[in-house]
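A favour between colleagues. Tell me how you read the following sequence-structure pair.

===
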Amino acid sequence: MDLAFMKENTLSAAKELLGKKLTTLVDGSVTSGYITEVEAYLGITDKAAHAYQGRRTKKNDMMYSDYGTIYVYTMHGHHCMNFITRDAESPEGVLIRAVEPLEGIEVMQERRGRMDHLTDGPGKLTKSLGVKRELHNGLKLNEGPVMIEEGRVPELILESKRIGIDNKEEATDYLYRFTVKGNPYVSKDRVKPADSNGWV
């Protein structure tokens, strides 16, 4: 699919990623799901972003890439997957926080060592989908084992504060977390499931 929607504005790109079908091919196994939760990080001006004030390290170097690049970092032993937006001069991106499982659920269960709560968090979904920093950091979307395509359409998108950044001053209050309202496959906390799964 055309990834041009990721080129201009990170906040709008984050919202457009909701509902996209995310697929991985790792070790011969296909796993996929519909994206249900994301967070946007606006680079140089965003105190919660890895590239705030133009910070550039070995860890975050991949943020200085063109849109469609995959940026995987580790936190507390877990891998977190981001899709870079805009261009190499604007180190912005979207953290993929959760997906609704679709294909390869048995593979996900084996990778996670459990039957449920497979993809409702950034570290959970990367483990279920087989995404690792050493394998996928720096690859391009739709040019290798990580792909997105059209999937489902959210009925309503909720905007809320990002998770786990309580010490980032005013950035703590930015409503840069987007979820599919009513979908149960999102992170713990502020979004309560409704009667529907949130899709049109």
DSSP finds four helices and eight strands in the chain. The mean pLDDT is 95.
